[in-house]
Amino acid sequence: MKSGAAPPEDSAGAIPAHALRLPDGSVPRKGRVPPRRAAPSDPEGAVAGVVLAAGSSRRMGPANKLVLDVRGEPMVRHVAATAREAGLQPVVVVTGHDADAVAAALEGVDVRLVHNREHEKGMSTSLAAGVDAVPPGCDASVILLGDMPWVRPETIRALRSAFRPGEGVTVCAPVHRGKRGNPVLWAREHFPRMRSLAGDQGARSLLEELADQVAEVEVDDPGVLKDADEPGMLQPEPGDG
């Protein structure tokens, strides 16, 4: 291909993610594309948020970690408020274990609560309940974990900006210092496969299956790698903000 030439199109007319070029003309490694510079209100379609907040948090002991204090507010409230600040609309929060306490922790935050009666069957049931609640007008959803309160709004905005379904980029995952983290943006076309997952698993297996459609978005945000599984993890590390 000559320098400056347009990348090849596949049989459907879409440009494969691995054929995109960086500003200097080089080709990024497969699956990694730079996010376009776009305002939060300028994704290719409306993007919802789904916060998974149904787990029993057994490793934290008797307390429900999602309502424990982090920087002066309940953990799950941080996650939902960050999703709203990043421009996700609507924000769906899937509850299950200790649903009343989670709902109380979210009082005053503009979210829609969806109760998962089958939450004891594992995370997959909450994922299914969450994507089922995404309105038809949304082209994608960012799946956020309720125990990751240190993710920054600008990280979610970066995922939205990288979302280019017309160019074959239908999944956007943050990467910090070479490690892939959460949350992850998923195009609506993947919702049926997400509903088919079973047990206590998220959608990690789908990331591998859809590697050609995944944009790995570099972010300066250690919060994408840090969840709160044990009491000692509730204090933010230096630089977490």
Mind explaining what this structure looks like?
By secondary structure, the chain is α/β, with parallel strands linked by helices. 20% of the residues lie in helices and 18% in strands. It has 6 helices and 10 strands; from the N terminus they run βββαβαβαβαβββααβ. It has helices spanning 75-85, 99-105, 123-132, 153-162, 191-195, 204-209; strands spanning 47-53, 69-70, 73-74, 91-95, 112-115, 140-145, 171-176, 179-180, 184-187, 214-218. β2 (69-70) and β3 (73-74) form a beta hairpin. The longest helix is centred in the first third of the chain and has 11 residues, at 75-85. The radius of gyration is 18 Å and the shape is globular. Residues 1-30, 33-43 and 237-241 have low confidence and may be disordered.
TL;DR?
With 241 residues, this protein is an alpha/beta fold. The protein contains six helices and ten strands, in the order βββαβαβαβαβββααβ.
Supply the number of helical segments: 6
Distance between the termini: 45 Å
Biggest pleated sheet: 8 strands, mixed
The total count of strands amounts to 10
Low-pLDDT residue intervals, each spanning 5 or more residues: 1-30, 33-43, 237-241
Instruction: Give the overall average pLDDT.
Output: 82
Strand content: 15-25%
Helical residue percent band: 10-25%
Provide the succession of SSEs. EEEHEHEHEHEEEHHE
Radius of gyration: 18 Å
Shape: globular
Q: Given the helix and strand composition, which structural class is it?
A: alpha/beta
